């Protein structure tokens, strides 16, 4: 059941017995999109394995082709070969459509600014509503011409380089993707790059991930800056997606079952593996090996008070777990997720309340109190993480339906099929 065969509303039924399963999830969206871009900027031919094929990574595949990379895809084998091209030698205008993908858009704009020709970047309505202002200002400071034909700081944007690089102030409180995008383009800037953060950085582990992927392609970055240099082609194996893993680990905690996600070992590059730590604090048993994470539920789940600024893609997952705890859960530090695919704080609280759950929105997060979800058809607001998180409420409660389940195609087209398989439902 890929997203193309999903109905417009999906009805989910409770599990008959607690699952006991091992699952290997599709590749990490974040690592796939970094590796594709580094490979596209590298000298020579790279081979990526474990590649995620979903709307967000297809957007990046299209974008790197526009940058001049030669791309060969073997979807069945989950591999992509990329022959890089130096964007500084480009002369033709290009146009890139990032669809709904924040990573594609925020990583591409600085790469387009390396080109001495005009590059237009656009996305769908959801992405047009998300902020780009800090990146526009930074690229202007670094020497690019940026046109904002619609609204200031919003897509569509047109950028003409080349940027010369150097020192640049950048706010960190809205998104880490601006910094990651600048860093990845940084080595190809004449003067390299030195970023001075003007506000605290959110989603910090993603910047560590950026530096790690860059290092695999031969460039050392320190998280705030990088010297001029060239990427080298590499053979690169992409880990499974840790944000996607949160739904399965949560399912084990909610049902009292046992689920192992393989391929996400102790050395994972993804901060979202730390979602398992939150489940552990709630009372689930967690074991971590070199090759995977296992969560075993069973006992009561305690409510927690937790800052999720580092792992905010798993906040909605936690909201679903919190419904099944024995005390309130307060999530902090994530005001910035109001600017993701939707206002995720408002969306998750609104939908839980529609199911009769006592939930409250705060400026920087939410509180969820335990309860029994009433039969509800949930709205997803076109947000894949709303669809995947709210579907967890069906594990122990009848009558749960998800409207527009196809939005999972953004990062995980096979989500509902995998969830059914792992939780042993028809
Ligand atoms: O760099 C990345 O790969 C990502 C960074 C995070 O975004 P923000 O930095 O905007 O919080 C995260 O939510 C997104 O899904 C992926
Ligand atoms: C916020 C997300 O994606 P992006 O910012 O890459 O669009 C996400 O995957 O939850």
From TrEMBL:
What task does this protein carry out?
Answer: Catalyzes the transfer of the enolpyruvyl moiety of phosphoenolpyruvate (PEP) to the 5-hydroxyl of shikimate-3-phosphate (S3P) to produce enolpyruvyl shikimate-3-phosphate and inorganic phosphate.
The reply to whether Amino-acid biosynthesis figures as a keyword in the UniProt entry is yes
Q: Its principal location?
A: cytoplasm
Enzyme nomenclature, EC number: 2.5.1.19
Top EC class, one word: transferase
Q: Where in the cell is it found?
A: Cytoplasm
- Superkingdom as given in the UniProt entry: Bacteria
Question: Which annotated residues bind 3-phosphoshikimate?
Answer: 29-30, 34, 175-177, 203, 313, 340
Organism annotation:
Catellatospora citrea
State which residue ranges cross the membrane: none
Record's protein name: 3-phosphoshikimate 1-carboxyvinyltransferase
Q: Which residues form the signal peptide?
A: none
């Amino acid at each position: 059941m890929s997203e193309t065969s999903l109905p417009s509303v999906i009805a989910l039924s409770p599990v008959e017995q607690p699952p006991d399963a091992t699952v290997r999830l599709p590749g990490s969206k974040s690592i796939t999109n970094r590796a594709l871009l580094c490979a596209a900027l590298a000298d020579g031919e790279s081979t990526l394995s474990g590649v995620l094929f979903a709307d967000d990574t297809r957007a990046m595949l299209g974008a790197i082709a526009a940058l001049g990379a030669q791309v060969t895809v073997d979807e069945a084998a989950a591999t992509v070969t990329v022959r890089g091209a130096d964007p500084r030698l480009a002369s033709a205008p290009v146009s890139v459509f990032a669809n709904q993908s924040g990573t594609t858009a925020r990583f591409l704009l600085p790469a387009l600014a390396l080109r001495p020709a005009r590059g237009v970047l656009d996305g769908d309505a959801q992405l047009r509503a998300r902020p780009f202002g800090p990146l526009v200002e930074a690229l202007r400071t670094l020497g690019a011409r940026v046109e904002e034909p619609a609204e200031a700081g919003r897509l569509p944007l047109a950028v003409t380089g080349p940027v010369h690089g150097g020192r640049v102030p950048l706010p960190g409180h809205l998104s880490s993707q601006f910094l990651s995008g600048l860093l990845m383009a940084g080595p190809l800037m004449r003067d390299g790059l030195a970023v001075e953060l003007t506000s605290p950085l959110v989603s910090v582990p993603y910047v560590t991930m950026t530096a790690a992927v860059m290092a695999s392609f031969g460039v050392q970055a320190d998280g705030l800056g990088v010297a001029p240099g060239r990427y080298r082609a590499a053979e690169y194996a992409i880990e499974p997606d840790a944000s996607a893993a949160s739904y399965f680990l949560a399912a084990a905690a909610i049902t009292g079952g046992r689920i192992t996600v393989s391929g996400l070992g102790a050395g994972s590059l993804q901060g979202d593996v730390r979602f398992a730590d939150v489940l552990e604090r709630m009372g689930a048993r967690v074991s971590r090996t070199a090759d995977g994470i296992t969560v075993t539920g069973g006992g009561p789940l305690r409510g927690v008070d937790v800052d999720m600024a580092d792992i905010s893609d798993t906040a909605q997952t936690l909201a679903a777990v919190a419904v099944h705890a024995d005390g309130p859960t307060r999530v902090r530090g994530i005001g910035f997720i109001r600017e993701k695919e939707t206002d995720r704080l408002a969306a998750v609280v609104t939908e839980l309340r529609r199911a009769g759950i006592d939930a409250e929105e705060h400026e920087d997060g939410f509180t969820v109190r335990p309860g029994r979800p009433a039969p509800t058809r949930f709205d997803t607001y076109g947000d894949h993480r709303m669809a995947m998180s709210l579907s967890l409420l069906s594990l122990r409660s009848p009558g749960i339906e998800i409207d527009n389940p196809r939005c999972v195609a953004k990062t995980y087209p096979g989500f509902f099929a995998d969830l059914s398989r792992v939780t042993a439902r028809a």
